[in-house]
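Fold it.
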Amino acid sequence: MRRFFLALFVPLSVCADDIPPLRSLSRTNLLEYHAADGTKKIATTAAEWESRRKEALAGFQQVAGPLPGPEMRCALDPQIIEETDCGSYVRRLITYTSQPSGKVPAYLCIPKTALAGTNTPAVLCLHPTENKIGFKVVVGLGGKPHRQYASELAERGFITLAPSYPLLADYQPDLKALQMPSGTMKAIWDNLRGLDYLDSLPFVDHTHGYAAIGHSLGGHNAIFTAVFDDRIQVIVSSCGFDSLLDYYDGNIKGYVQERYMLRMENYLGHPQDVPWDHYELIACLAPRHVFVNAPLKDANFRWQSVDRIAGAALPLFKLHQAESHLQVAHPDSDHDFPDTERFASYELIKRILLPAQ
């Protein structure tokens, strides 16, 4: 197994000059931005880079659809469907209303210490692709091993919220009826409303923000959500991304599904023209804490591509004097979230959300 802090080691096996630009800006020199007069400049402050951050989010929404506005923020109307005693914590199957006529099923795990009056930080736990049991996998109710991070974090004293991902397993919202432009944006909105729900709970301590953790689908779902909401101060992405240029050698057909982004079909055969890429999205997370698990044998997302992205994003973290906040681990495994890396991410979450302990 190989693990390292990206701030100390960044292998670049592909020359940056060979990587095509992104919306006419350098994909690898992410400090480059469009100034107000239309010229290209190099950001020397976080304020100057704000122009590119806004452009990056606009590029993402060009494909995923626009982030809903306040008109979608209806009453949450949370309902408890069932409750299970899990020893040190209670697991509740709940629903909350993320938008008019849009109920989201989720698991809420609450340590008994929180129910007894101890304010406790919370983690948004986003599940991987699982079309049989969906969100149940992250609370340990079946599915592949090493995905039960919601229950493991609850055992470690965190409140965890695990919403269902749209159009997987039993969660089948009608996106057109709900006026949602994509499954990706629906998931983002459901997650943001999940944070609103956590904000409303009297025993949730959000003094230091929230964490978001996910594997595979959950890994990029965590990134997509966090770029739109800085309440999320720790982002853990396991097997969640590589560059669109490298994803299956540039064959982005996997993204062309209703539960993801159907508009990606417009870029089949020329992924370099997609107006977003993870290069910028990871940079948009600076200066927050980012833990990436990128196994050496992952057949879905290439670890070398992850390193190129993280290497390109690192100057943004340096710009914020937060170079150590970007960490990449490379276990010698396949598309998995092994114990060592998973537990290391829990320690990071604990350090940031419980700094006094």
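The first strand starts at residue 2 and ends at 4.
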